[in-house]
Amino acid sequence: MSMAAKKALASFPKVLLDEVEKWGGRKQTGVSLRYMTKFGSQPTSRNLVFSAQFLHKELPIRIARRTLELQSLPFGLSQKPAVLKVRDWYLESFHDIRSFPEVKDTNDELGFTNMIKMIKVRHNNVVPMMALGVQQLKNDIYPKARKLDEIHQFLDRFYMSRIGIRMLIGQHVALHDHNPQPDCVGCIHTKVSPMDVARNASEDARAICLREYGSAPDVNIYGDQCFTFPYVPTHLHQMVFELVKNSLRAVQERFMDSDDIAPPVRIIVADGLEDVTIKISDEGGGIPRSGLPKIFTYLYSTARNPLDENLDLASADRVTMAGYGCGLPISRLYARYFGGDLQIISMEGYGEFNILSVRVNPTSFLPADKIQKLLDSFLE
């Protein structure tokens, strides 16, 4: 550990660091989507207190595990300023939760809810901040180190855990909404329309493209408008938004100096008995064969990294068209979190086909051991 890292740790009490070690060794508890939906359908004061009591014990375990990993990453990644900042966020959040008294009644529960809501906000910029840390590492060692499987494996674990933590916090906080939208149980929607999500995500992606380039290709969407299924709409939106954004950028950059009209990005939503499959295709030129094995790694992007020119840690919160190198791998993690998947098929010289599949009945989160086996198999 570098002197800077040791000095930063020294600012935290040793008793806190010892407690992180202790909690990081405990086993976390899985929670099924079916249980969260059933439990959240009756957000009584008693149930909310019970939920807060569970989170009071569960969140420190998950946060402590990630904190310990952030302190022992290979290739000196733990010592990068951006990663040290993320580690401090996790230490502060662990301290906040462990310092909060035992939740016994409604007043305690409300105070606890406000506290974890602030923790969720504190961690809003973890992804771009970690991307900045990885970029700092890449500038130091790449292409000297060709195989960085340890980094990719850690980041897959780290981001998958982050999805779970934010899901637990978000669901508890959302249950306090006194005027929930129809068919919503917290942040879970029992009748998500993939067509509506695709339309909204496409509009958001086109807005970013318009901001960056001054124009944006059209997006055509095909599918059954009446079809719905239970899912977390924010997760689906995030995945479709990222894929459409990539397609728009590819098409825009390929045709921006051409007299030809940029062809539209096409989205087809197919509803099956087990999966909803969303195909997003474009004519942006595709990716060369040599680039395909890299597209789900965290050290690769076909775009200029937006953090290269400005390493100010406070500037990592602006949504850009591309360049962080983590959009596709994180989108795949979102899909796999509920048992789905993401595949990319490229036709060099023509375009790409993004095949996103999500489970129609995601009854439970993928168990942690299965997640790790799945991640390990793709890193072999």
Draw up the topology in text:
Blueprint (H helix, E strand, L loop, with lengths): L2 H8 L3 H11 L8 H8 L4 H26 L10 H19 L6 H17 L3 H16 L7 H26 L9 E2 L2 E5 L1 H20 L5 E4 L6 E3 L1 H23 L9 E7 L3 E7 L45 H11 L3 E7 L3 E9 L8 H12 L1
Parallel strand pairs: 3-5
Antiparallel strand pairs: 1-2, 2-4, 5-6, 6-8, 7-8
Helix pairs in contact: 2-4, 4-5, 4-6, 4-8, 5-6, 5-7, 6-8, 8-11, 8-12, 9-10, 10-11
What does the model show?
With 380 residues, the protein is of the alpha+beta class. It is built from twelve helices and eight strands. It has helices at residues 3-10, 14-24, 33-40, 45-70, 81-99, 106-122, 126-141, 149-174, 194-213, 233-255, 327-337, 368-379, and strands at residues 184-185, 188-192, 219-222, 229-231, 265-271, 275-281, 341-347, 351-359. The strands form two sheets. Strands 3-5-6-8-7 form a five-stranded mixed beta sheet, with helices on one face. It has a three-stranded antiparallel beta sheet with strand order 1-2-4. The protein is globular and about 65 Å long.
